[in-house]
Amino acid sequence: MSDQNFVYLTKERLVELEKELQDMKTNGRKEIAAKIAEARAHGDLSENAEYDAAKEEQGLFELRISKLESILSRARIIEPSQLPDGEVHILSTVFIKNLKNQKTFEYTLVSPEEADFQAGKISITSPVGQGLMGKKIGANVKVNAPAGLLEFEILSIK
Asked: Does the N terminus or the C terminus of the chain have fewer Cβ atoms within 10 A?
């Protein structure tokens, strides 16, 4: 398996995904089966929108289970202590300054599966994440983002 197929996760995120998958396989499937059975009880399935909706929900639910199984089968645990100091890498918390408007931002670089912009977690595969990877404190970084060219200075790395 090539390195590109791995999914890098923190131990905490791995545990969260395992719990979510377990819950979906036990409780979630029972709930969906109950919805389908209830909708089926309403009669003619050819004109039963509730049944169609329940079957569609089941399909999306099973797709999520499949995705979680795929992620977990390719998961590799990241140990922050094994990563180099002084440069931006996955799990780094980076303080950057936007050179256009002088605003500062704090981001933690994570795998795409852990990204949550509202929580300050950006993916290493995002334009900003890719631009920051491997850089050191004081570096000026130019990033081609959907919003246009962005320029940052790296103020600190944790």
From this structure: N
How many domains in the chain? 2
State the CATH number of the domain containing residue 46.
1.10.287.180
Q: What is the pLDDT at residue 95?
A: 96
Q: What is the DSSP string of 73-134?
A: HTEEE--GGGSPTTB--TT-EEEEEETTT--EEEEEEE-TTT-BGGGTEEETTSHHHHHHTT
Cα→Cα distances 116→37, 64, 104, 110, 112, Å = 36, 18, 18, 9, 9
Does the pTM of the predicted model rise above 0.85? Answer: no
Q: Which two tokens stand for residue 79?
A: 């140990």
Q: Judge if 67 and 92 occupy the same domain.
A: no
CA-nearest of 36, 25, 27 to 58 is 36
Give 80-120 pLDDT, tens digit per residue.
Answer: 777 777 899 988 999 999 999 999 999 999 888 888 999 99
